[in-house]
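name: query_chain
kind: protein
chains: 1
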Amino acid sequence: MSVLLADVLVWDPSRASGMTGPTDVLVVDDTIAAIGETARAGAPTGARTIDGHEHHVVLPGLVNAHFHSPANHLKGAFRSRPLETFMLYESPADPALRPTPREAYLRTMLGALEMLRTGTTSVQDDAFLMPSPEPEIIDAVMQAYADSGIRATVALDQPELPDTDKLPFLDGLEGLDPEVAAALRAPAPAAAAELLGAYDHLVGTWHGAAGGRLSAAVSISAPQRVSPEYWGALDDLSRAHDLPVFAHVLETRTQRALSVPGTGQDRFAGRSLVQYADDLGLLNDRVNVIHAVWVDDDDLDRIAAAGAVVAHNPVSNLRLGSGVMPFRAMRDRGIPVALGVDEAICDDTVNTWGVVKQAGLVHNVSGRDPEDWPSPAEVLDALWEGGAAAMRRTGRIGRVAVGAQADLAVLDLHAPAFTPFNDLRGQLVYCESGGSVRATLVAGVVVAEGGRVVSVDEAALLAEARELHAARRPALERTWAEADAILPAVDAVVRRAARTDVGMNRWIG
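structure:
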């Protein structure tokens, strides 16, 4: 299949204006074959033409570098809470909530539809498939991504240790209600051997599927949630197949408190989670260091030396009160920064444009010199080049260039966000919300056009998802009531961590 984007403006970060044109872009199969005067002449017979009328700009498709699809059906469901208490409600391992394959397919599709409609072409899904990642559920998630047409890299975000190994300040466990204490001591829903078997299925069945659009990653969830042995096994798998490694690291003050002596987690021996990973030899250039809010200078030096990428999730960090990541300190060290939505219940949408805007705003309250605030060019570099680095696809996505993948978003500069037109970069970061997207292409295929996804029957899927979730609601509410019983114990941990001196502050106000 070939597509000719005719009389379009083309994203070009080397130019002061951020674009060149009007010109033509020729897509052949899944690749950008030509840009400029040779494009139209080289278009094969039967190529589809999309006319840009000299006011549509062709951008790289947006990269959502960090996401959790299993919560797609819960947007707006919860009040804001700190992560540790939020997670009690977010992903219960209750067998009554074990999804059917169709349910897993539909909830995955909800996010894919919203992303494609607003110009996101690539996503890294750190999927927590509770209570365990069974092959048929993995298949349903991957099939949804295959059918939607999006480019997706998927890992299995499953803890391997009980809560007592993940949290500080549980020295008073004996004083808790016996049922609450038992819940905190309960083993993880799936053991390491079962999880590694699930990865065998994911990698063996889906890595490189759909013409290379679908790929696998591995996830430790977080350093405190897994044993060094399991982490090492995943790192071996990552090295063998060149897969990204997803690791939530120092997202919250409570996680920083794990390094404080006397908090009950002696295995960290006073080290931060970054130092711990580095000492294990498991911090490397395949690692996506997710969040990295409560990091210090030594942590950042180690991340930079390892060549790791940081996945920045500013909307989620605000929703959960986690804090503000030190963006400038990372950029000054040359650490690649990517942007992520995180999930639909701590962003409450799956629209990457909101993350772009927040990344351009929240660091302005850092107290630093205004010259250190992120520029629109830096935010867009994180969106595209940082996202490509996180997915280990540098040079293949995140660019509009001959030979790159034809993952593209076509935006109308006559839309309200760009009227009147002043500055492309500034209006992309501060003004655009997805409403200007006129077409989305992934691997050369038009998957969304005119405000709707055309790769699947969007209306039918949304109707089915509404009906299924309504039937699930009573079971969800029961598990939330059960979480209420555990909440005071975990809340006490978070409050004690908030009072603990961790040598830094990432909160504002």
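note: The domain at 62-390 is CATH 3.20.20.140 (TIM Barrel).
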